[in-house]
Amino acid sequence: MRIDELHLAIAKGELDQKIAQIIGNDDVTRERERYFTLIDQALEAFGDGDYHFISSPGRAEIGGNHTDHQHGHVLAAGLNVDNLAIVKRRDDLKAIFLDPHFPRIEIDLDDLLIREEEKNSSESLIRGIASKLKDMGYLVGGFEAICDSRVLIGSGISSSACFEVLIVEIFNKLFNEEKITAIERALVSQYAENVYFGKPSGLLDQLAISIGGFTAVDFKDPSKPVIENFNFSFSDHGYELLIINTKGSHSDLSHEYAAIPNEIKEVAKELGVEYLADSSLDVLLENLSAIREQVGNDRAILRSLHFYNEDVRAIKEKEAVKNNDVEELLRLMKESGHSSYMYLQNVYAASAYKSQSLAMALCLCDLLLKDRGSYRIQGGGFEGTIQAIVPHEMLESFKESIAAVFGENTIITAKIRPFGTAAIV
User: Fold this and answer.
1) pTM for this one?
2) Over the stretch 85-131, which tens digit does the pLDDT of each residue have?
3) How many other C-beta atoms lie within 10 A of the C-beta of residue 324?
4) Do residues 143 and 87 touch, judged by C-beta distance below 8 A?
5) Pairwise CA distance, residues 253 & 353, whole Å
6) d(Cα 127, Cα 168) in Å, to the nearest integer?
7) Which residues lie below 8 Å from residue 398, measured CB to CB, with a gap of 6+?
8) Are the beta carbons of 421 and 210 closer than 8 angstroms?
């Protein structure tokens, strides 16, 4: 749509239904203003043209903490917190991406080779995505985009995957008639992060963001993940999902994150397999003494033990969601969080032991909730955010107690978004 047509469509409420689904609320008045602001910014920066809105959500990892990269099971959910971009195509191969939170991005897509100097940058992700799409036979081209990011870097709801899948959808909408599937979007995004960005991530974040809703995934064959999607809401069962930002960023802790799969690979090697999912807990326990001596790293062993128990737990969590058994789900989520803390050891970085904001938040949840609700680490860990599932009647007092420690505007009351990254118009 041209700028005036887009503005009129929003003013007349033609996008209200889709917007309401995104934010999990029928009161879209404030959200309309966000769209109007982006329209004004696009007109000023790029002039008129045929524009589209694309929304990409953050994600909550419900179960399966660090199981995806070992070909295990996960349970995740798309959130109503999103990055919203207004985009239009260019006639050349220049990609321009503007976001007031970050430096201007401008790259030429006529060169799609890996650049070492671009590692760990947004530029590398765009270049990597374009390269992979081209290899798959899809079209790529230049574009102009302005984004309002609410999934901020280091926040623990997967800003990198949110950005990656958004970029894939830009190419999908502008050049490929939306033929790129949700699974392909995730795989392309993961490729760019692994190969061009240089971070050895699994596929959990990208899939949860690309698909939306409650998503259970079996990664036995990561190229063909088995996916089940569920309509489930904590709110319908008397609880709210809170994302608590402890104001610590894990964006500079990639080495701690990478150590987890790297250490687990050492154990898998001693088991005679490439990934832990190709062996079993029984085999590890039977050979524990010898493997422990050979690996020489007890943390690697503990992290592997976490995997086997967490993998089974993720399957049980999926069944709890399928059966609408919220109490069993909450029990398993808390159990998962305890395993991450004790065995996976990703609640704080050993190299920065004085900074334990996640541990502090988890302790407060334990003290405040007691035997009610649930709480656990959110995502990759080390810094960032935790989850708390809080009964409605405890919500306000809980928020006040958390805000008193971590400050105002540190709590997101999140809703489960029923669909993933998508072009709104």
Assistant:
1) 0.87
2) 999 999 999 999 999 888 999 999 999 999 999 998 999 999 999 99
3) 13
4) yes
5) 13
6) 11
7) 242, 368, 369, 388, 390
8) yes
